[in-house]
Specification:
It is a single chain. This protein is α+β, with helices and mostly antiparallel strands. The chain folds into 5 domains: 6-181, no CATH class; 205-312, Coagulation Factor XIII, Chain A, domain 1; 319-480, no CATH class; 486-600, Immunoglobulin-like (Sandwich); 604-651 and 668-792, no CATH class. The chain is built from 14 helices and 35 strands. Strands 16-25-24-18-19-20-21 form a 7-stranded mixed sheet. α4 (114-122) packs across α5 (130-148). It is elongated, with a radius of gyration of 64 Å.
Length: 819
């Protein structure tokens, strides 16, 4: 049987079932992909939120920007990856009927490949005939009938989809509920991750702090600059102050974390800040020399960017120079150094010195503060960002005047500050009238600035880094008060008793700090209280040292008593006055020792001089006696030495006699050594006393001459009969004897023969004794005349006593008659 071939088409039933399966698959995949997207998005939300909260609880800071940006990119990338790889492919992918048929064949084995056969032959253009075509038609019909009976829902496993949808629903609901109940957290998350704000936690912090520096001196509050930096002087204490603004919670504890960077490496630490009051906390880092980074934490606050402490050298004065103009009367402007560098902390200047106080700093300055007990000066730039100059002077003129503030003009400040701003200069004057000058100061600044003596200046500097000097530069300017001249005088050739014709010689030296203006005598008679001046012949010429002298050859200044016409028993007081050339605070006057004299007759003076001469003669006689004793002692020990020499020549046979001989010789050596030492000492003592006798006779001679009671015979006797021989004795004889005795001692030490030295000493002693006897005879020759003078003086004194008694008796009788 033959049948024509015909084209077989896909049955509508099969097409409808396959299209339904295709739609079911796409819906399943879409729902699953969207659920995965929701789960991933919610998971990313919760992870970002939890990470932010944990990070803030630990560090009190927002998450780093790099982390938030990376998280955002990573999250968006993950969502896009899920969307591209999970959701979009099943939707846009073409699902062929053959693939769908195979899926159903696998899921429903009862189809026995009939469905795939129907689909394959239905999608081809080939035709079948005969028995094969009939069998194919029968297979397609069977597949069409069976496919309509299939439950397509059993093709899919609902478990995974249900889990993803459930998870997505729960997570989405949690996010929605969290967003509704905690909108601020949701807003903070959006600001952090979506808007990438750096301070997204700021509106939600309960604590806040303003961190500042308390700069010294003066407890000045300093802010960190826009770069969170503060320039701190090297080696100074760093005071950190943290203040809580109003409306913010005050934390129970505030800590400061620091990291220092030094030459040996970095170090870090944490310290607690001390609470000072409501909302104030402070901590001190002692002697900071390295750069620091600081973080302050309290409550939920911490500074995001570290505060940086930059170490700079504090401003200081490397040099202080006083450019001086000394008072004219001192004469120092011609020879003294006008520029006086201050070494240490003190300098001394004469009072009334004008000077320019010049300070040289180590860096550029912005302001200078000079403080003292009576005046404060502050000048410099008005602010850190301005070139305008200003200043003021605070004057304290005393308790009654109080404080008076005088503004300084820009022109005045420009005179004080150098163009380079690394030095300054202030005109000043050291004066004793400084307090009065300051009290009289009006609206204008007193220039030069008056300073009292011994003023201590404290100089504080402020540099361009807004750094104050850690310690002030201290300078004490001492005022050298021009003291009165020092008068050192002494009498020569007179005693306390003088005649009315006397000429009193005074020698001495007068010194002054800057120059002597005038020197004169001052005298007073009897009970007068004031000294009467009398000029001297040779006046000073402003020199600092002056010696009293009538001329270059005569080294004394004489005061003549004759013009005063004094009488016997009157008293005269005499001294030398001197004054300096200070015409500003002086002149200053002083005087030397006051010498008191009594006027006596020439006879009484001669009698007193005779008493002195008599005492000198007795003293000289004692000297002669001691010299004779020295001579006798030397001769005696010479003889003992000769006896000892003969003893040495004999040699006893017996041992006991030998020991006795050695003992005698030992005692002889000791005696010879004692003789040399004793007589050398005695000769030197007599030499000194003889020199004193000579000087005393010279004084007697000078006193006679100065009191004008001398005669040629008296002077010749003293000159040629006494002082000239004594000069020869002191200049020749005593040194010769001293040398011989020295050789005598040396011979004893060397145990040699001393007889030659002893003989020489005795010979020189004999010569000296002859001369001494001649001087003594000359002293005695004056005795008869002196006794006559003394007897005459006694008669005159007795006569004066009788006259006084007679006067008293006459006055008594006169009173008796009146009664």
């Amino acid at each position: 049987m033959h049948q024509d071939a015909s084209r077989t088409a896909l049955r509508p039933e099969i097409r409808r079932v396959l299209d339904d399966l295709r739609g079911r698959i796409r819906r399943y995949v879409l729902i699953e992909g969207l659920s995965v997207l929701v789960v991933l998005a919610a998971a990313l939300f919760w992870f970002g939120l939890v990470a932010d909260v944990i990070h803030f609880d630990v560090r009190k800071l927002e998450l780093p920007a790099w982390f938030r940006l990376g998280f955002l990119i990573l999250g968006v990338g993950a969502l896009l990856a899920v969307l591209v790889m999970w959701v979009l492919p099943p939707i846009v992918r073409r699902l062929r009927r053959r693939s769908l048929a195979l899926l159903l064949e696998k899921r429903f084995p009862t189809l026995s490949d009939r469905l795939i056969t129907a689909v394959e032959f239905g999608e081809t253009s080939e035709s079948s005939s005969g028995l094969g075509g009939a069998m194919l038609e029968k297979t397609i019909d069977s597949a069409s009938r069976d496919v309509e009976q299939l439950n397509l829902s059993t093709v899919f496993d609902p478990g995974p989809l249900r889990r993803w949808v459930t998870a997505a629903t729960i997570l989405l609901a949690s996010v929605v509920v969290f967003g509704v109940t905690n909108a601020s957290a949701m807003h903070r998350w959006a600001n952090a991750y979506l808007l990438q704000q750096d301070d997204y936690w700021e509106p939600y912090r309960r604590s806040a702090m303003s961190v500042k520096v308390v700069a010294q001196p003066g407890e000045r509050i300093r802010e960190f600059d826009e770069n969170f930096e503060y320039r701190h002087p090297r080696g100074a204490d760093l005071y950190i102050l943290a203040e809580v603004p109003e409306g913010k919670d005050v934390p129970d504890r505030v800590e400061m974390q620091y990291r220092s960077y030094g030459n040996t490496g970095s170090s870090r630490g944490t310290v607690g800040m001390s609470a000072l009051g409501d909302g104030e906390f402070r901590h001190v880092l002692a002697r900071v020399i390295d750069e620091h980074q600081l973080w302050v934490t309290g409550g939920d606050f911490i500074n995001r960017q570290p505060y940086r402490i930059v170490i700079v050298d504090p401003p200081r004065l490397d040099q202080i120079v006083l450019d001086c103009e000394y008072p004219a009367y001192t004469g120092m402007n011609a020879f003294a150094d006008k520029e006086r560098p201050v070494q240490g902390t003190q300098i001394s200047l004469p009072l009334e010195t004008k000077f320019v106080f010049r300070g040289v700093a180590n860096k550029r300055l912005r302001r200078v503060h000079v403080r003292s007990d009576h005046v404060d000066i502050s000048f410099g730039y008005a602010g850190p960002e301005t070139s305008e100059l200003d200043g003021q002077m605070t004057v304290r003129g005393g308790e009654e005047a109080g404080e008076h503030v005088i503004p300084l003009s820009a022109e005045t400040v420009a005179r004080f500050m150098s163009p380079e701003n690394d030095r300054f200069e202030i005109p000043m004057q050291l004066t004793s009238s400084a307090v009065e000058s300051l009290s009289d100061a009006g609206n204008g600044p007193p220039l030069p600035v008056p300073l009292p003596p011994d003023s201590q200046l404290q100089i504080y500097l402020e540099d361009e880094d807004d750094v104050y000097s850690t310690d002030p530069a201290l300078v004490t300017i001492n005022g050298i008060i021009d003291q009165a001249p020092v008068v050192d005088t002494q009498l020569r050739g007179v005693s306390t008793t003088i005649t009315r014709l006397a000429s009193i010689p005074i020698e001495g030296r007068i010194t002054d700090d800057y120059g002597i203006g005038d020197v004169h005598f001052g005298f007073r008679v009897d009970e007068e209280t004031e000294f009467t001046p009398r000029p001297i012949d040779r006046r000073p010429r402003g020199n600092k040292e002056y010696r009293l002298a009538e001329s270059e050859d005569v080294t004394v200044e004489r005061f003549s008593v004759l013009p005063l016409e004094l009488k016997v028993d009157q008293r005269l007081a005499l001294t030398v006055f001197a004054e300096d050339g200070d015409q500003l605070n002086g002149p200053h006057k002083s005087h030397g020792p006051v010498y008191s004299f009594r006027i006596v007759t020439p006879e009484e003076l001669l009698a007193r001089l005779y008493d002195k001469e008599l005492n000198l003669r007795l003293r000289f006689e004692q000297i002669i006696s001691e010299v004779r004793d020295v001579r006798e002692d030397l001769l005696q020990h010479r003889q003992r030495y000769e006896e000892g020499a003969s003893l040495r020549e004999s040699t006893p046979a017996a041992e006991e006699a030998l020991r006795e001989q050695e003992e005698l010789l030992r005692q002889l050596r000791i005696a010879m050594q004692a003789c040399a030492e004793r007589n050398l000492h005695m000769v030197r003592k007599n030499h000194t006393e003889t020199r004193a006798v000579q000087d005393a006779f010279a004084e007697i001679r000078a006193e006679m001459v100065n009191n004008r009671v001398d005669t040629a015979s008296i002077l010749n006797r003293i000159d040629y009969g006494i002082t000239a021989p004594l000069e020869q004795i002191n200049g020749e004889d005593f040194p010769s004897v001293d040398g011989d005795l020295g050789l005598f001692r040396l011979a004893n030490e060397r145990e040699t023969d001393p007889t030659e030295a002893i003989d020489d000493a005795v010979a020189h002693l004999d010569t000296m004794l002859v001369r001494m006897e001649q001087v003594l005879n000359e002293m005695r020759r004056r005795e008869t005349f002196n006794e006559l003078v003394k007897s005459l003086q006694s008669i005159l004194e007795r006569q004066a006593e009788i006259q006084a008694e007679t006067r008293k008796e006459q006055e008594r009788k006169l009173f008796d008659l009146l009664n």
